[in-house]
Every structure is written in C-alpha cells, then in structure tokens.
Amino acid sequence: MVKFLFSILISFVFSLLITPLVRNFFIRKKWVEDPITKNKKTKNATAISTVPRGGGIPIFIAIVITCLLFLPLDKHLIGIVIASLFSLIIGVWDDIKDISPKLRLITNLITAIIVVGSGIGIAYISNPLGSGVIDLSFLKINFNFIGPHSIWVISDILAIIWIIWCMNVVGWATGVDGQLPGFTAISAFFIGVLGLKYSSDITQWPVIILSGAVSGAYLGFLPYNFFPQSIMPGYSGKSLAGFFLAVLSILSGAKLATLILLLGIPMIDGIITIIRRILKHQPIFLGDGQHFHHQLLRRGWSRRSIALLYWFFSFTLGMVSLLLNSTQKFYVFFGIFLLFCSLFIHFSRHN
C-alpha cells in the first residue's frame, strides 16, 4: 500500500513540475492549437483559446521515472517503455504537424506489436456469462530464432486489437478541458486498488506500481488542463492514456471487463460512434463532432460540468468494480449501454 501511494505521489510531483516547462517550450515554438481549424474539424464552436498540445511528454517522463525507481527492468517493462516511447514520438509529431488518421492507426498497430513482442498477451479472459475462464493460449506457433520461441496466436491477436481499441476510444473522449486526465487517473487508481487485493502475489506489484505511476502522472497534469486549460493532452497524451490503461488491464490478469466498466462512457461512446459512422458510410477514424461530450456542449453543458460527469462515472463504476465479478460487470455495462443508446437516439431526434 505504501509503495502504491508513493508511486502516485512521485509521479504526480514530476508531472506537476515538468508540465509547465513543456507548455512554455511549445508556446515559444508556436506549436499551439488553432481554434479556427479545431472548430472546422469537430464542429465545436466553444473552443475559445489558443493553447499548446504536447501533454504526453511530461506524462511519459513522470511514468517512466517512477517505474524505474520502483521496478526491476525486465523484458516486460522494457517492452512497455519502448512501445510507449514510440507512441509518444508519434503523438508529439501529430501534436505539431497533425498526421493522418490512417498513419495514426498504423503506428497504433506497431505500438501494440512491440508490447506483444515483449511477451505480454491475453492468455485467458473471464467468462462473462458464467464461471471459469476462457483459455486463449491453446493455439501456438513454435519456432527457433536465437533460441526457442512461441507465438500464442489468438492471445496475441486479441492483445493487439485490445490495445489499439483502447488507444482510440480513450482518445475520442478528450473534447473538453480536464476530461481525459481525470477519468484516466481514476481508472488507473482503481486498477491499482484491485491489484492490492492480491498483493501477496508478487506478479501483481508491477501492475500496482505502474497503476500508481499512471494515476499520479495524469493527476499532476490535470491542474494545467482543467478549465480554463493552459495545455492540452494532445494526441501524445491521449494515446498514452489508452495505451497504459490497456496494458494495465492485461497485466493485472486480463481484467478487460474491469477496464470496460471503468471506461463506461468512453467505451460506449466509441461503440456507438463506430456504428453511426458505418451506417452513414463515413470513415471510422475521421472525427465528426458527434461524440457524447459534443452532444452535451450543444445542449448548454459547461466544460467543467462535462469533465466532472466523466469523472463521476469513472469513480462510481470504479467503486462498483471492487464489488462485482466478471459476469456482474458485464450486466452492469450492458445496462449502461442500453441507457446511453436511448440517450443518443434522443439526441439524434432533437439535433
């Protein structure tokens, strides 16, 4: 418990101190968000200030330093650091130059492959409709290349898809000040708390420490991003959020259902967004300004209120996740999904 709290504190302090340095550097370089361009892309007429992006830089530094202070540098941590560094480089490039959604997706794939290549995969998942687990490790490809190796086909493919999905769906939920760092910090915190329940298992400590580092880093970034924001997470900050949460859910024992519940609104918004864009024959990964937070903005909600709503849902569902098994989490998520479907139908009729 003490190490978990210290990992949050140390990461928080590093993020809090480094963020204004990055912000000021981006401002000097004139790497700032153009609100006119932003409005055209998202149809969001409420953007009122020109601020820099690049939030992933202090977040990455805080997380990595904290992990190196508390964790041994094994092959899994090396893979996570390399993958997150690659994601950060691409993210900062996008924060400065705005790369294409297709190129983003390709780099998401590379990021996920780096993680899987380090030996991190989803060997099993809890059965959402009953007891026991579903084994995903039965299909293997064995080969020799400077020693024996195995590829767990289904396990690795699912891990790749899961990481890419989380990197995108979390990134879509970042339309208002303070929205993303708040629910990311809360989600990482509850994954760490769940890990503490099994702290006697030494394999859970990397999850606990990494959870604390992620939570602290986004908490340290939050004061600068809450309304009125002076720096945005940018693609670098939001892709790292999805990446680390996805990896944490895998490392914690394939607790995919837990993360799905913690990210209830972003997950449901992402599913509805894909369905909507397919039905309208629109590119899936091209913004359309129709996300849940956009709908609330059009109906007069303030940016602070929307951010607090997302935090409230993450915190409430985090508390619920501590009490439920996988089957119960599935039914709770399904109930929330039906509720939000009805809300989106209502929104579409009154646009």
Describe the largest sheet. 2 strands, antiparallel
**In total, how many beta strands?**
4
Order of helices and strands: HHHHHEEEEHHHHHHHHH
Count of DSSP H/I helices? 14
Q: Quickly give the structural class.
A: mainly alpha
User: What's the helical proportion of residues?
Assistant: 55-70%
Characteristic terms for this protein:
two-stranded antiparallel sheet; 351 residues; 14 helices
Give an account of the 3D structure.
This protein is mainly alpha-helical and 351 residues long. It has one domain (2-349). The chain is built from 14 helices and 4 strands. The strands form 2 sheets. Strands 1-2 form a two-stranded antiparallel sheet. It has a two-stranded antiparallel ribbon with strand order 3-4. It is globular. The model is unreliable at 39-48 (pLDDT under 50).
Summarize this entry quickly.
With 351 residues, the chain is mainly alpha-helical. It has helices spanning 2-28, 35-42, 56-70, 75-97, 101-117, 153-172, 179-196, 205-225, 234-251, 256-262, 264-279, 292-298, 303-321, 326-349; strands spanning 124-126, 133-135, 140-144, 148-152. The chain is globular.
Give the helix/strand layout:
Elements: H1 2-28, H2 35-42, H3 56-70, H4 75-97, H5 101-117, E1 124-126, E2 133-135, E3 140-144, E4 148-152, H6 153-172, H7 179-196, H8 205-225, H9 234-251, H10 256-262, H11 264-279, H12 292-298, H13 303-321, H14 326-349
Antiparallel strand pairs: 1-2, 3-4
